[in-house]
Design goal:
mainly alpha, about 0% strand, globular
């Protein structure tokens, strides 16, 4: 029997999401004032960072199976910011704190400065409806803790 290869690995998803985050930051910077699209963009950034943070352990599992502990720990430390920044961005978006949204967007862009995204990308607009999804996630988490 041959190996089963998953074409949608956590690494590929992380790469796709980092590019989408950068595109969303570019679009957010173009917004003249906070509006529905700006809310969607900021919420998408928060959600994407949370997905990236959740995929880190999946990525390092193979290294840990082979006892590459240092490599796994280094990777975790390299991406530890994603979960923290995702939480901060989520809080800022839900509180409509646009000053912090702008500051966090700049910090995220700084962290992802090595990622290259073509101007002629084919990502589309994955942030459409992200604000509603973020609010739904918050509501569902509140309901599950009660």
């Amino acid at each position: 029997m041959s190996r089963v290869i998953n074409p949608d690995s956590a690494g590929k998803e992380r790469t796709r999401l980092t590019k989408a985050i950068l595109i969303a930051i570019r679009e957010l910077a173009k917004q003249p004032e906070p509006n529905a699209e700006a809310r969607d963009l900021a919420a998408f950034i928060a959600l994407a960072l949370q997905i990236i943070a959740e995929g880190i352990d999946v990525s390092v599992a193979a290294w840990e199976k082979r006892d590459y502990w240092i490599k796994a720990d280094r990777f975790r430390m390299e991406w530890a910011w994603a979960g923290h920044m995702g939480e901060k961005m989520k809080t800022a978006v839900l509180n409509e704190d646009w000053g912090n949204v702008a500051m966090f967007s700049a910090q995220i862009a700084q962290k992802l400065q090595k990622v290259k995204v073509s101007e002629n990308h084919r990502m589309g607009t994955p942030w459409v409806g992200a604000y509603q999804q973020l609010k739904q996630n918050v509501i569902s988490r509140e309901n599950s803790t009660q």
